Amino acid sequence: xxxxxxxxxxxxxxxxxxxxxxxxxxxxxxxxxxxxxxxxxxxxxxxxxxxxxxxxxxxxxxxxxxxxxxxxxxxxxxxxxxxxxxxxxxxxxxxxxxxxxxxxxxxxxxxxxxxxxxxxxxxxxxxxxxxxxxxxxxx
Length: 139
Prior knowledge:
Number of helices: 3
Structural class: mainly alpha
Radius of gyration: 33 Å
């Protein structure tokens, strides 16, 4: 087993499992370093603080990822409901407006009515696609 400490792509410390079997006076052995940390109050406090901070950061990151997934799922569900409502609203309003136009004898305005509602309904799908596209470009 080999333990490396790397800073700015340069190996600072390289501990090898063979070093543990060396003498206690060897300043590169893991036992020597752990004894120095345990016997020095300041190093002990710093080590405990660093380990606790890293463990907290790991838990906070996991909670953030879970919350993000829940928010995305809830948002997707709500947006699908809005799309379904928009589909039926556009369809019903379009048919009502076409019938009104036909009752008044205006057959030339039907294409304008249809295109108006098609664009309105299409916006429910095009706008999120554009937002995702922008998000992908800048991430």
